[in-house]
Amino acid sequence: MNDVRTLRVPSLVRVKPxxxxxxxxxxxxxxTRKAILFASAGLxxxxxxxxxxxxEDAGVSVTRTDVDSxxxxxxxxLFESVPPETDAVLxxxxxxxxxxxxxxxxxxxxxxxxxxxxxxxxxxxxxxxSLTIQGRxxxxxxxVPTGVVVDTEVCRLAxxxxxxxxxxxxxxxxxxxxxxxxxxxxxxTPVNDLAALLSDATVMQFLARPERDLEGVRLLATALLLxxxxxxxxxxxxxxxxxxxxxxxxxxxxSQRPRLHGLQVxxxxxxxxxxxxxxxxxxxxxxxxxxxxxxxxxxxPFDPDEWRLAVERAPMLKPGFHTILSTMDAWPRIDRQIGxxxxxxxxxxx
Length: 350
Fold this sequence. Notes:
This protein is α/β, with parallel strands linked by helices. The chain folds into two domains: 145 residues, Rossmann fold (3-Layer(aba) Sandwich); 185 residues, Dehydroquinate synthase-like - alpha domain (Dehydroquinate synthase-like, alpha domain). It is built from 14 helices and eight strands. The strands form two sheets. A six-stranded parallel beta sheet has the order 1-8-5-4-2-3, sandwiched between helices. A two-stranded antiparallel sheet has the order 6-7.
């Protein structure tokens, strides 16, 4: 008899201009009376105030807490301060606040509503929280949001580097799915076909129109959201994370100055796609070309020595997690690509 697992996917999804100003109406409709808002420290006051006002106008009592640390210890401390009568947890802003809010909602078994103000990665909709434990980022089991509210007007105005980071994280889905299938043929790792198809389709959907306007923001937000759903369907991170994420995690450990997650995995996805074969490299390259992704990399080039160490260390980070990096000494081939691929000119320092 097959095990039955309850799937949790967002029941509220609003991706449109002005969505953040309607959060009170959305919560009022589901009977929310008292909420706690975890907001990224340093957000513009008018933006936060508009969210607070929207909640209060809808009769939702709200307590605001600013988050400037994404540590596990701080998340537990903040969880202990949540009033017991709280019936909804909101995360507003960037990754740290959203991950802390998501984990707090998970600990308390409360509905969680994600309100990202940029689209730098798919973490806002994933079933995991990325928190720092003893100085290292760890992915902890959490809960998929009950609702996702993306104000496309606000996200469109986010810095270019955050947009490019989200594009890079999306491009990684192609290499992640390829690694997943490789693992199936190597050791029988189960592949959820629907999750794999959904993950692949999100990239194709965005590639059809990768523009930096309200519609393009809507498409990127929807694609990243559906990757979170794909991970929930699969019961693992496999639809969204493969060898390219292992390289990024290794860079986080060894780099003197790690870059944004999506920038690292975007470049890594382009590089490992060449190891995987097929037409993935050109498809990923087209996506990164058309969105101007390389501009953010060339503005702050990577250290090739750190990448060599990261590529060598990556296969050892998750024992039993088979990827293309498990099958070869990858660095010599990647090194040749870095030196000879015109797309990568200026992306790595001396």
